[in-house]
Amino acid sequence: MYNVVFQLLDGTLISDVSEIFDILESYKPIPSLQRANAADLVAVIQRDLVPSFDRLFQCASQNEQMDARSKFNAAINFVSSSLINSTGPFLLGSAVTEADVLVAPILRQLPLLAYFRDATFRINDTFAAYIQTMEAQHFVQQVVLQLDQLKAIYVSTLPKQGPLSLVRLQHVAIRHHLDRSTSQATTILHGSSQAQTLAKSLQQRLTHLLSLLRAHGAFEDEVLFPEFERVMFGSTRGTRDEYERKLLKLESFEQSVQQLVGSVAMGQLKKPAKSDEFRGFVESLRNLGNSEKFHMAGEEADLLTLISGPGEAAIVHNIYFNLKPVNEELLPFILEALSPADRAQYIHNIFVALGKSHSAEWIGFKSLISRSLTSNDLVDLSFRFPAFNDIGA
Q: Which of 19, 133, 149, 182 could make an S-S bridge to 145, C-beta 3.0–4.6 Å?
């Protein structure tokens, strides 16, 4: 993602940064790009900022991305602190130095971290002004590609997560809707003047969420658990027991949704803030959220890693057909909760899992996607996942 290449007049290509700066200094020693006081800052850029930036782009693994994100954030904060101590407008004062040249390509690509990797970073006003100053520099405009050009390149070159990331992305959607449901229920409990309207939205969300939890649990039981057991006998013993208990809890919880949330939605329970039953329901919702998040975290950390690898597409193929009867209801609900980048990954996983042998199935699934997304979201998906536009694919 970050490659500095210098071409000499004889066609020789040089990628060693120190050698490039030595050559530039020999051609034009004044003003010098190299400063004696730049050593620490240049070291952080080369040792920490650039490698962590590359890992954020190049590593599809969520764990590696989290580690790279932490290191990148620390490095960008160090660079930002140099500006605070500088007379400006550049990192080390009034003139461009090698530190500015090294960081320029990363500054240009910061928006792409958010676009492709959902990685955002807080930037203070001083650093924002520095980015604008660097963008206006002739050498940046002439050498560093524009964002649209970089996007087009990265769409086809960035590594994707494995097909089994579909399970993790469903977890993302479940967490999102659990948090939104808890937030809505808590707002009602605190005496919102919009309680009836909120309750209607909450009832609809929880109805879909309970369907998703059941469907997700069913493909875990019927598809994933046998795979886990095949690799490690006994690995799902406790998880299977938990699944059986969860089904009973969901049935009881669904009755509470219909009775309590439904009564608020219909205007029958006019003061839910004073209702002990509704307070108990909100507490049950929080407990459900905590237990589901604990279960999903354990599955991601301990079980999914057992079956990651070459056989993922076949497993997701079975998951897809297990979910097919509820796709019409649940796919829009899942996609609504995902970021554009995660949405494209989720759909890519289905595309890979179905393969050429199920082209008719894929065409039908594409039709469902088209009905599930807004026109703007479809345009975005088509750019991120060009195969979506292929006729017959």
A: 149
